[in-house]
Amino acid sequence: MIELKNIYKSYLGKKALVDVSLQLPRGEIVGLFGENGAGKTTMMKCILDFITYDGEITLDGQPITRRNIDKISFATSEHSFFPNLSALGHAEFYKEHFPKFNEKRFKALMEFFELPMHKNIKSFSMGQKNQFEVIMALSQGADYILMDEPFAGNDVFNREDFYKVLLGILEPHETVLLSTHLIEEVSDFIGRAILIRKGQIVGDVTTSELEDEGKDLMSYIKETYRYRADRVSKALNDLAGGEG
């Protein structure tokens, strides 16, 4: 389990995370939702120890260090691969550095996305680069797979098919934390939703709990964020009233 206890993070005096406490057990697919700047990426970077923070984050009860960081992988549209290396070259590199690298999964996902094995990654399109980033995160052999808006530049059919494949390939001990704005697309594939707003956790619910209450995910998010359905019509009326 990954556990966050009282995490605080600020940038130049501006609060990015405020007293965030959270548990991520094994075997879950978790959606992380929030507006731009809510703190989603910052929270993931704290887990990965990419940035400094106040508070405590543990992995299976231990601090996250070089000894256990290989239990976590990360996919982001910012990309973290070697542009002059081929996909096959990346697989060879990962096999050398990650003993649990899943070569069978790597090959199956490369075939699923129809990506070339021998071309340098810099020759890939943006959508293909994002697909490859996800492939490497899922093939590393990590127990916890963090994904931060991984499907920018991919069409809706590719995304939907991938979610179905994801459900089919994950092992019971693997956890996925997926940050995305595509809420309605992933609502049928996640088992838990975490809502963050202005650096604070404002909602944490399982999809089964929502079903028991007769709610869907989007309705829950709008209710939690106190979304005002009349804000668009009010803005249009204000603009219309100011014309002339």
What does this structure look like?
This protein has 244 residues and is of the alpha/beta class. The protein has a single domain, classed as Rossmann fold. 36% of the residues lie in helices and 25% in strands. It contains 9 helices and 10 strands. Strands 6-7-8-3-9-10 form a 6-stranded mixed sheet, with helices on both faces. Strands 2-1-4-5 form a 4-stranded antiparallel sheet, with helices on one face. β9 and β10 (200-206) form a beta hairpin. α3 packs antiparallel against α4 (126-139). The longest helix is centred in the middle third of the chain and has 14 residues, at 126-139. The model has no long low-confidence stretch (mean pLDDT 89).
Strand pairing plus helix content: what structural class? Answer: alpha/beta
Helical content band: 25-40%
Question: What is the ordering of alpha helices and beta strands?
Answer: EEEHEEEHHHEHEHEEHHH
Strand content: 25-35%
Q: Write out the CATH superfamily name.
A: P-loop containing nucleotide triphosphate hydrolases
Spans of at least 5 consecutive residues whose pLDDT stays below 50 are none
The average pLDDT score comes to 89
> Shape, please?
globular
Q: Provide the CATH topology.
A: Rossmann fold
User: Mind telling me the C-alpha Rg?
Assistant: 20 Å
CATH architecture: 3-Layer(aba) Sandwich
The total count of strands amounts to 10
Cα distance spanning the termini = 61 Å
Count of DSSP-assigned helices: 9
